[in-house]
What we know:
By secondary structure, the chain is an all-alpha fold. Helices cover 75% and strands 0% of the residues.
Amino acid sequence: MRSLNPACKFISLLAVTVVLAGRMDPLWNTAAFILSAALIIVSGVRIRTLLLLLLPVALAALGMFFTGYRFTADSAMPVSSAAFLSGSSQLVNGITQASRVFAYAGLGYLFALTTDRILMVRSFRRQFHLPQVFAYGLLAAWGAFPHMAMEYRKTKAAFRARGIRVFPVSPALLAPLLVKSVRWSDELSIAMESKGFSARAERSDSSPAKVHLRDWIMLILCCAVLPAASILI
């Protein structure tokens, strides 16, 4: 999954999401989640990391289960799902809603955990014709995040050294960070302009993001084969 073109991967997973949105079938949702989790693990993500990320998803799925269990209608459930689960429409609806949360989370994590952010910006700029100003802004923001985190820890340590207790989102912590972020963005803008980075100038890529055969195969499977199968099955 890491070797796929991010733009093609984004379109493919979006197509899968649309297909799942048009079906009220827990089997499809469960299959999408299991396949996404398997691809994430195969791509090199640690199982412990994936399980930690799924904790809030499990809480959301639990809430959706009880919501679907409490508010349902007998005529709203497909016969195939009810026959498969051999339960009441309330139970079927609850499981369907909960499985949908896991399916969407799995697809989202599949894209986020297996996609390089720099390659994603290059791919979006080449395949989606993303304006250069947005591409530069994204890259600059991601480059500033480590400095912002380090400055936050320094400010928090300074308050601790003076015996002052502050909350994690205290204005005393966030105000200096906001001021320095504005200063960093201004300095970065001046530096980029001095180096010739302009929204109007055409630039070439040292490593352009290309669409390979494997990307076309994934697009065909997710954008043509899967929707056709969802209609026929």
